[in-house]
């Protein structure tokens, strides 16, 4: 079973998941630790679930057209949309909350 390491706001969450798991689906049904994942539409339209891939990106398929449209240049910085990823191998992701508006 793949292990997902998820980093958010200085916290580290780690969990084995079934192969072919989508983290946004897991977040939606409140399965630990993925309720901490920021997401909204789950369809690649809003990019709220954008995460930086720290490790394991070599096992991911190339970005699809939704990721290219939503992330643009952020793809070069290692960002991917969690809603478009079906986890098949160990992966480490990071997602920090945006700074609060002043």
Automatic annotation (TrEMBL):
Domain 2Fe-2S ferredoxin-type intervals: 17-85
Top-level division of the source organism's lineage: Bacteria
One Pfam short name: Fer2
InterPro entries recorded: 2Fe-2S_ferredoxin-like_sf (IPR036010), 2Fe-2S_ferredoxin-type (IPR001041), Beta-grasp_dom_sf (IPR012675)
Gene3D superfamilies cross-referenced by the UniProt entry: 3.10.20.30
Name used for this protein in its record: Ferredoxin
Molecular function terms, GO-annotated: iron-sulfur cluster binding
